[in-house]
Amino acid sequence: MAKLTVKDLDVKGKKVLMRVDFNVPIKDGVIGNDNRIVAALPTIKYVLEQGGKLVLFSHLGRIKSEDDKVGLTLEPVAARLSDLLGQPVEFVDKTRGTELEEAIDALQDGQVLMVQNTRYEDFVDGVETKYESKNDPELGKYWASLGDGIFVNDAFGVAHRAAASNVGIAENVAQTAAGFLMEKEIKFLGEAVENPVRPFVAIIGGAKVSDKIEIVKSLLDKADKVIIGGGMAYTFDVANGKSIGNSLFEEDKVELAKELIASAGDKLVLPVDAVAASAFSNDADTYIAEDGIKDGYMGLDIGPKSIELFESVIKDAKTIVWNGPMGVFEMPNFAKGTLAIGEALVKATEENGATTIVGGGDSTAAVQQLGVADKLSHISTGGGASLEYLEGKVLPGIAAISDK
Ligand code: AMP
Does any ligand 1 atom lie closer than 6 A to the CB of residue 279? Predict the structure, then answer.
């Protein structure tokens, strides 16, 4: 790959700055799920084993007031990291100043320190400053000055936003390298957009057309087939003159859906049936709707014929990208379509040697629910970032990583 990675760096005895994504769910100081901390361990361990003096930066939640800071301290995260690493992690409850500078200068080779939540800089002295989130040039410069000119970015989840702690630091150091997580994202998502092994099939689901229309458009240029599922399919159904009952639908996107249907031809694969329900409830009365949905009912999942159709397209693919559920999978009675896609991806990986990439919180939750996440090629750690990457947009956090 064309970007510098952490393995290209000489970190021994150096103060190494690293941006990680430790934006974990946290309530009353208790971490709900530490997946993101675990995921960053390989890069952290590597730098420590090579004798680097490691300084970690992460954001946590959103800070719009002094009160927000109380529940969004990174202290419990530092404690969890220390448990996972089996070594002390010094936590500094500051984002700048003498205390932080002295603590960093006192680090020995192989020691690690964590800076307080970078978004504390978004609210300073009673004012919403957004120094971190708006990439204030002075802040990036200051943070960069705390290290020895090398910066590792392993936070893919925020790569689609230019902040002081990713782009700002990168602009003020000699070398910025991708961590192992970031490297994997660039490898899988980057190759899928730039150079996919074909047939390349994209599966896009979820609630709203307006959220994902841009990615559908751009994937129609790149992929061999684009499968549409979930609530967004009904706007396409209306464009095709089908009745949809009370299903989710966006009137102002019907014209656009018509245009896409006309220009994409058989590249666009739409559901051919639906699980129609009398209410938005797991206990609703349901039937399989094949020729439009009758009044008083709403489509909450793809039906068995759609599953079969989608499976047949997925079966032959060599590269598959999936983002967004096929139905309201949070309710067990409408989860079948989404789970079937997860299973079809596993099959394609195992039996057809396909590269399978899942992005977005809901599709990731579905493959985890199936217990098959480790049977797929890549589960992206970034929802918004992975969508923008697949759309072909330049992600500022990745653009700021040095070329080899
Ligand atoms: P998104 O954030 O756009 O990926 O949308 C995810 C949400 O879409 C999930 O919470 C699903 O419950 C919801 N969803 C999927 N299919 C439907 C549908 N047919 N009707 C209503 N909501 C849906």
Answer: no
